[in-house]
Recover the amino acids of this structure.
């Protein structure tokens, strides 16, 4: 899998103290607090982009910080206390800004030693003010998270980074647009949703793409551009001799066209319904090559017109920098394995190396639809987290369902004619897991993220306002 290619969270870092201390504390003590705040800010900058950094003792300083935060438009506010601080210095501003708040409750020292003195207490009494602040945030239903640790604790900093990553992913997810080609597969009810409800509860939008516009865009792609990509493919993939140049070039032109259309519309996810496209005369090749390669570049996808799960894949990508579309096709009850596959669609990055991806000429099973470059590969062994999204009963909230599993090292299924992977559930038998998944309302399309991502997904669900269910 590729390294996370996403930007870091952009934050405003605000330190708070008590105005009274400006006149009662020694200049040396005040300087110690300012020095601490600078050190903490440098540590925070290791995991986030700090756009604003202000230490506030007074209401005027808070007002100035609010103006800077408004101009910077960060993903979140990170707040630390340098001493005791009264909640009403900062809480009204946090409420008015309406941004996610992460409390980083930390202090200068990490222990109480035998020679601990009153000055040490003056420099490290941050807990009470934090509790004053969090109580008011809780009572006023302001969404916040808190990470309590010493400022040099690597694990604490990792928790802080996870929280900020979840916030950035949630913010980005609210702006997802899906391009829909060919409408929805008739009769697949788990694809249906109320667009207004989903826009309100999540923020995503769906835009229809005219099949004729898609075909025309593909036809307009210069052959030379496609030829250049083909030469790259011949170098990196394992290409069968039966994949003729014309079939390959047409698939590449469709990939480049889809990429252009996504960029032009500001969309980061795509879905297509092959049953509709197959009925359109002269529509041409189905864009499976485009889908598999664009998923590897970050495009969200789900098959058959499932815009909701296409958006979910992109939402998972926003969190982890890698995601895949999948479906549980069948079960090996003897070995506790589930076959994860679809018609052809699968992110080529799961293969590990491009050379593990075999390209060949593949006929489509509907008469009259042109052949296309099929792909054969499977996942590299490793852990995965599976995620599915569904509207809850009543239509007022979304539910995010997760479970984890592992792809074991197994012989390749040479006679299976499409990309696939075999997943063993982490904590339940395959049968128990599938029953629990259905009882939780899981749809038949899922997104997959490499590694253990359930904890991060739970935090992302919190910031999105989703119900969260873990089946592990």
């Amino acid at each position: 899998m590729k390294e996370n290619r996403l930007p870091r969270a952009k934050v405003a870092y605000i330190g708070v103290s008590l105005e009274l201390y400006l006149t009662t504390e020694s200049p040396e003590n005040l300087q110690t607090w300012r020095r601490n705040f600078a050190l903490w800010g440098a540590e925070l900058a290791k995991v986030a982009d700090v756009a604003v950094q202000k230490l506030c003792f007074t209401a005027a300083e808070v007002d100035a910080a609010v103006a800077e935060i408004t101009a910077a438009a960060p993903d979140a506010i990170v707040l630390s206390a340098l001493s005791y601080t009264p909640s009403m210095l900062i809480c009204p501003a946090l409420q008015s800004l309406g941004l996610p708040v992460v409390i980083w409750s930390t202090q200068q020292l990490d222990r109480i030693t035998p020679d601990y003195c009153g000055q040490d207490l003056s420099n490290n009494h941050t807990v009470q003010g934090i509790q004053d602040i969090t109580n008011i945030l809780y009572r006023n239903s302001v969404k916040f998270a808190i990470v309590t640790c010493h400022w040099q604790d690597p694990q604490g900093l990792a928790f802080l980074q996870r929280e900020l990553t979840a916030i950035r992913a949630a913010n980005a997810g609210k702006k997802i647009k899906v391009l829909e080609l060919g409408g929805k597969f008739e009769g697949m009810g788990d694809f249906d949703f109320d667009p207004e409800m989903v826009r309100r509860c999540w923020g995503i939008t769906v835009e229809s793409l005219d099949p004729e516009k898609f075909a025309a865009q593909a036809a307009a792609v210069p052959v030379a551009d496609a030829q250049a990509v083909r030469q790259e493919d011949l170098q990196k993939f394992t290409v069968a001799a039966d994949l003729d140049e014309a079939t390959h070039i047409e698939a590449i032109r469709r990939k480049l066209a889809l990429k252009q259309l996504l960029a032009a519309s500001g969309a980061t996810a795509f879905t297509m319904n092959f049953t509709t496209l197959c009925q359109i005369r002269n529509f041409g090749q189905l864009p499976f090559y485009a889908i598999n390669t664009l998923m590897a570049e970050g495009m969200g996808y789900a098959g058959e017109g499932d815009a909701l799960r296409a958006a979910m894949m992109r939402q998972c990508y926003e969190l982890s920098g890698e995601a895949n579309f999948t479906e549980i096709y069948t079960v090996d009850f003897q070995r506790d394995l589930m076959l994860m596959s679809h018609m052809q669609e699968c992110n080529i990055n799961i293969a590990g190396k491009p050379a593990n991806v075999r390209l060949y000429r593949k006929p489509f099973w509907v008469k009259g639809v042109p052949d296309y470059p099929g792909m054969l590969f499977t996942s590299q062994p490793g852990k995965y987290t599976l995620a599915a999204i569904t509207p809850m009963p009543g239509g007022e909230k979304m539910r995010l369902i997760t479970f984890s599993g592992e792809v074991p090292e197994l012989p390749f299924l040479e006679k299976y004619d499409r990309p696939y992977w075999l997943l063993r559930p982490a904590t339940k038998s395959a049968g128990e897991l599938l029953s629990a998944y259905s009882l939780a309302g899981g749809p038949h399309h899922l997104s997959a993220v490499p590694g253990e991502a359930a904890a991060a997904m739970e935090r992302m669900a919190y910031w999105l306002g989703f119900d969260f269910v873990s089946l592990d």
